[in-house]
């Protein structure tokens, strides 16, 4: 069943309630951002997005390390306003498009999009009431509202991770070409939001294995279809990633890179004949991965990290706090949501 067909089967009251919650979420985001200053890194994402629109996806400095093509969406309004100024300086859209708040509104638009997919997925799993309840919890989630109004890629990866997993779930339920295409497309788009999305390849593999672990005979019988879907995933992902970086400097061999991180230098040194094989990825994509890994190894881009009265930074021998994100989760996620998660886990293991 398509997304449109699912939505059309909802009652008028259900559609009204869903629309109301999505609009409430949109209004909360817009209202909460009006008197907020920009964060320290928003202009860095905006700057990289502008460079993408001007045809230059390459990393220029260390601060470009993790910046991604999706930031071009935020830079698009100002980019268009500059074009309009040249054609008609008095165009009434120019003040709106050139306002920095408009760049933030672009991210806000993804808030109802993600909310709609959360409703759809919950509804398909547990029914209408569960779908609406999930959407209600999402609409008033403070952490999501906090990031959905920023010119960064954190909310983009949140949205694309969820949506790509949703379509991969649909693909596992019904391995049609359409579901395969949508799953591969959204997975590829996720790679243009943040490098963390690379973990999705591993997650997709684990999900597929767990789903079909007891169906080896069936898999062998349909191995040709599996190979076709696999090649479709690979082709679409490579195409989307290359398109996101404007197909610039693709097919550069490993030997021609100047890596900074120990990990990538080691791979380059030990690659043997493979280092002469052209890589089917844009230079900026690989270069950014290297920058990110180098920053992890050296702590070069790290600020002060605080936890339980202690501060660590790049000068600290052990600059990472063990279990930091677990403690951050306990402090930042609303207690009501934590209780619901705990109850759901208890219910899951009991049944």
Automatic annotation (TrEMBL):
The keyword Membrane applies. It is found in: Cell membrane. Keywords: Cell membrane, Glycosyltransferase, Membrane, Transferase, Transmembrane, Transmembrane helix. It is a multi-pass membrane protein. Residues 106-236 form the Glycosyltransferase RgtA/B/C/D-like domain. GO terms for molecular function: pentosyltransferase activity. The chain crosses the membrane at residues 12-31, 102-121, 127-146, 153-172, 192-214, 226-247, 324-349. GO terms for biological process: lipid biosynthetic process. One of its GO terms (cellular component) is plasma membrane. Its main location: membrane. PANTHER family: MANNOSYLTRANSFERASE YKCB-RELATED (PTHR33908), MEMBRANE PROTEIN (PTHR33908:SF11). This is Glycosyltransferase RgtA/B/C/D-like domain-containing protein.
